[in-house]
Amino acid sequence: MKIAKDNKELNNISDLAKELSCSTQTLTTTVESLIEDLEELGIQTLSIKIENKLFVAKFSNEFSLDRLIHLYLKKSFEYQVILDCFFNTTKSTSQYAKDYYLSQASTYRKINSVKTILAQFNLELQQASKIQIIGEEKMIRYFFYSFFWETRTSVNWPFPYSKEFIKKLRQLLYPENYLENNTLINENKLDLWFAITLMRVKENELIGALPEIERMLQKNPSYLKNKKEITKLCLEINSELTIQQIDEEVYFYYVVMMYNIYYVEYDDKMLPLLEAINENNEVFKVASVQFIESLNHFLSKPLKKDQYNILLANLISIHMYAFLFEGLLSPFEEPLKTKRFDRIYPSFYKLVKITYQNCIEFDSFSKYYYNKEFLFPSYMLTLFVSIDVKNYTIPISVYLYSSHSKILETILKKELSKMTQYHLFFTDEETKETDLIVSDTFNIPYKLSENRMLIWDPIPSDTDWKNLRDKLSEIKKEKEFLFLD
After folding, report:
1. What is the maximum alpha-carbon separation in the chain?
2. Helix 163-173 crosses helix 227-237 at what angle (to 10 degrees)?
3. What is the domain partition of the chain in residue ranges?
4. CB neighbours (10 Å) of residue 189?
5. Among 281, 306, 390, 408, which is least packed by CB within 10 angstroms?
6. Residue ranges of the Mga helix-turn-helix domain (predicted)?
7. Using an 8 Å Cβ cutoff, are 121 and 143 in contact?
8. pLDDT band at residue 344, thresholds of 50, 70 and 90?
């Protein structure tokens, strides 16, 4: 259904079967089953059929592929087993076979498919007295976070800890008024991470020591000020926790918070974090500094101090997260397609790509940051948030000339300045370094090459503006790619 929705031209049964690596007979049988399922699930926003060896799908505006996936998931054996593992309500394999009207052989095949998913997180499914997931605790939490993020609907909150309780704990770790003013926060992901972590702590499934991480939190003034209250809340969850275990859990909360917070403006309240970064020589700090050093080689000017600090803080969170979860990308989550960045921001995409390639050559941290699919979208988004990229790319020198009025020149300059996707620099005279001359007449007192000129009306038309954008895009691409080469 996803292929059909995303690519309506791919509707030939043979072509679809090739895309899905199956036979045409298997595809036909699957479509017939899907037609029955849609009727059983009460989905009226989609109709499908096979007609003249073509797959025909009609989607209404209200159709939601996510809703369809959720409905399927909730009926699946694998989904229920994973859910039961999380809530500690698993059954025997024979009971699962009865509940789903399966033979023992079919039940074991489905359990093996759960094992295949878990193996991608370096986890195992144990079938002793009860079915349970075993492995490193941090990876179990990452697995459950990934699972719930992709399968839980926004209206369904299946956890015993309220979002209000979670927010109270978060506020003790970070001053909320600072976060609201200077950062972008993914509240939904943070709530989910905390809910899963609190559930694990309640079951006495603890994270253990994270010595590489703890020094990052020890400079946090909110943590130091509110440590007693944080301890009290943690003991409400599990009264048997020791002070050391509470600290270890709080370090984990902090990493999760950092990854879901993007700094967008510098503020003096960032100083404790920057001090913690400066005093830390773990691999995630070294990788972050090296990334910025590599990036600086390809910027038109060095980063200003504030923007350097913002970028460093954001990179630290990315690299800490990748380090903690071993550079793995959740198979549940469809990553942002880097090629879409390639199409929209080709020179910037190449800038980040070269920076990453240079950075990853360092053996001291390359083994942690080899997974481009895991890191690259975060790098792209982080740089857009952290720095005004336009001001660090090669400027385009523009000379604007009007034979009618200097006032008109001034007004047009103001309008051109609004084209923030280009780093435009206006000159008072034409020189050999001028990239583009925009004029309302050919009769100008300069000897110019035609490929550097754009002639438009005294009051530019829509076509004039389109021609200008095309010309600027051409110059931008040419200049920046030449610089990056």
Report:
1. 91
2. 150
3. 2-64, 76-135, 281-391, 394-484
4. 14
5. 281
6. 62-148
7. yes
8. low
Which three-class secondary structure state does DSSP give residue 398? Answer: strand
Q: By the 8 A CB rule, do 159 and 111 touch?
A: no
Query: Nearest CA to 282 among 214, 350, 357?
Result: 214
CATH of segment(s) 394-484? 3.40.50
d(CA 209, CA 223) in angstroms, rounded, equals 18
* Confidence (pLDDT) at 444: 60
Instruction: Tell me the C-alpha distance between 401 and 439, whole Å.
Output: 5
- 157-161, 201-205, 335-339: segment of lowest average pLDDT: 335-339
Q: First-to-last CA distance in the chain?
A: 42
Burial of 341 (0-12, 13-18, 19+ CB in 10 A): buried
Encode pLDDT of 227-260 as tens digits: 999 999 999 999 999 999 999 999 999 889 888 8
- Rounded to the nearest 10°, the torsion over CA 392, 398, 400, 406 is 40
Strands 396-401 and 261-263: unpaired
Cα(340)–Cα(337) distance, integer angstroms: 6
Is the pLDDT reported for residue 288 higher than 80? yes
**Rounded CA separation 431/25 (Å):** 69
Q: Which fold has domain 76-135?
A: Arc Repressor Mutant, subunit A (1.10.10)
